[in-house]
Every structure is written in structure tokens, then in C-alpha cells.
Amino acid sequence: MADAAEEVMPYGDRGGSKAEQVEEMFDDIAPTYDRLNHTLSLGIDKGWRRKAIDALGQFGPQRILDVATGTGDFAILSAQRLKPKCLIGADISEGMMAVGRRKVAEMGLQDVIRFQREDCLQLSFPDESFDAVTSAYGVRNFQDLEAGLREMYRVLCEGGHLLIVELTTPPRFPMKQLFWLYSHVVMPAIGWLISHNDKAYTYLPASMAAFPQGEVMEQILLRIGFRSIQWKRFTFGLSTMYLAEK
């Protein structure tokens, strides 16, 4: 399953690694990403983010790394709800982070949140730098999922927590069939109308379908070394939260 996800690439066999293609794709759709993201999810994604962040809140993390931060929505909400001393948003796409920096400045959160370009498979931070590492809707884009998770484990303090929220495919009838229709017909059409990038929103459902889910993802996290793993599906399985301890 993990290997299948890593083989799904935005521009197919056009050339370049998955990381390079993902960076190009997100740089291209960055200006319209937030509007399109909330449109495609009908705004439900905002509730998924809040529930996940509140699950992390019981541990009171003060130093947070948000991996594959994109335009910073998850980082911003984490800063507002968790009140950490510092939060770093890391991403490979400068185009996405440029949007995030503008939002952070408009909200007056620049003293708490900063953005940094990072290869998520080779993070530049020392071991045990953070109380919590988070990622919302980004890990399925990793070129090597387990390598990325090992890096997240490495930079976590002992006793620190990993929080992942990822798009997933509903497992049961009729939502499974309805979502297939929505993701393969409606989603690419809306994606093209707003972003004019048909590849990005064909890649999205393909990457979701290939990504390891539920018990399979739990086993991968256990193999990395995480413990006390909890996972919960939101909205019939359209999104899944994974919370684990180092």
C-alpha cells in the first residue's frame, strides 16, 4: 500500500521525482488552493482540523512542527487553539508558503509562526526538537512515506506526539460509491474551473485511493516506533486522524 502511494505522481511519467512533481504542482495551484480546498470539501475540512487539533490539545505542546504545512491553515489553527510558544511550518513548496506567510502576517501571528522550506524526508532540525509534529493532508504526497515518518519520529521529543490528518476513502456502501463518483467526475471538473490545473485534481483522488488507511497505517506507525496509537475516521471516512506517542 505504501509503495502504491509513492508511485502515484501528479504528472505521471513526464519526468522528475515525485517530490519534484509535487513541488511543481503545489507552486502552480498555490494562488487558488485555499478557495478550491474549502469548495471541494464543502467547508467540512475546517471541522476535521479543529477536532484533530483539540485531540492534541490535552498534551499542551509548546514547540510544534507542522510538516507539509502548505498555506498554513493547520499551523494557524494550531497556534490559535493550542497557544504554543513557537510553531514552524515546513514545506517543499515556496509558492504555498508565500500564501501562508501573508495570512500569518494579516492575523498578527508572525511572532509565533514561521515558515521554512524543508525536504520532509531530510529535515534540518536536531533530534528531539519538538513536543509535537503535525501534518494535515500532506503525508500522502511524500516520495517515501516511511522515510518521512522516521524523520518526524526523530525530531520529536521522547513522550512527544505525532498528529496526522489525511484524506481517505470511505470504506462502506453507499458513501464509498458516491465518493468515487464525486472524486473522479466532480472534483477534477471543479479543480480545472478554479485552478486550470486538471492534473492536480486527478492526482488527488488517485493519491487518496493508494494511501494506506486505518489499521494498515497503524501498523506502519508501530513499525517506525510510535506507541499508544489512536485513529478516528471523520464524516463516513472521508478523513482520518492518527494520534501517536513517541
Query: What fraction of the residues are assigned to beta strands by DSSP?
Result: 15-25%
The largest sheet, given as strand count, sense and whether it forms a barrel, is: 7 strands, mixed
CATH architecture term: 3-Layer(aba) Sandwich
Q: How helical, in percent, are the residues?
A: 40-55%
Coarse morphology: globular
Quickly give the structural class.
Answer: alpha/beta
Q: Radius of gyration in whole Å, from Cα?
A: 17 Å
Distance between the termini: 24 Å
Strand/helix succession? HHHEHEHEEHEHHHEE
Whole-number count of domains: 1
Strand order of the largest sheet: 3-2-1-4-5-7-6
Low-pLDDT stretches are: none
The average pLDDT score comes to 92
How many beta-strand segments?
Answer: 7
- Classified in CATH, the superfamily is Vaccinia Virus protein VP39
**What is the CATH class?**
Alpha Beta
Count up the helices: 9
CATH topology, anyone? Rossmann fold
Structure commentary:
The chain has a seven-stranded mixed sheet, sandwiched between helices. The two termini are 24 Å apart. The protein has a single domain, classed as Vaccinia Virus protein VP39 (Rossmann fold). It is α/β, with parallel strands linked by helices and 246 residues long. It is globular and about 45 Å long. It is built from nine helices and seven strands. The mean pLDDT is 92.
